Task: structure prediction
Amino acid sequence: MDTEIIWFGLGASLLAGLATGAGALPVLFTKRISDRLLDVMLGFSAGVMLAATAFSLIVPALDIGGPFVVVFGIIIGALVLHLVDRFVPHFHPALGAEGPASRLPKVWLFVLAITIHNFPEGLAVGVSFGSGDTAAGLVIAMAIGLQNMPEGLAVALPLVREGYSRHKSLMYGMLTGLVEPVGGLLGVALVSVFLPILPWGLAFAAGAMLFVVSDEMIPESHRKGFEREATFGLIAGFVVMMLLDTLFV
Result:
């Protein structure tokens, strides 16, 4: 096991997770950001995730494991996220409560929802580093960090509007990203120890991220009437991530 790669993967996923806190910083100065701008930012995040899934996860998985491994890995990743989404209680501002009934405060159900969302992102960073390709790992960590920034703002703003203090809302925004190093450590450790599972790990992370984009991010960015703006944001995010992947890997 290459401990240096494991530390790289853990550190990169931690920095990507902390980007949620950086993105939430505007709540210290304002309670209001236009819904149009927020939807464009969410669309941009979705585009970054789609491109990272395609170019940084699926393409290398196809090269290493072939199409059948990738198909089954994507299906398994999506199904696992579906089951977690169904059986873990959580709360989305747009969709309301999901999963079984819970007596947890709404804010913790909200944090759980973002945690479910963020875990596969950390896993994707860890698996990428576990492959031994540090450049690819850094690119996907950069992509996850980019898309985490508007997500951190999307977490913190509703909390401020519901009466939480600015500093507490910022703290919760940062807290939601701290699950990513857990996923990153798991991904890099497993792939470093059991190299044959690398294509499965890449495809699993891809399926989980595709589920999150389709089930949460795109619907969230389309619910306030700015679907076209969000769509152009998604295209911009996809193009930016495609260029990063092409230029630096």
Residues 3-248 form one domain.
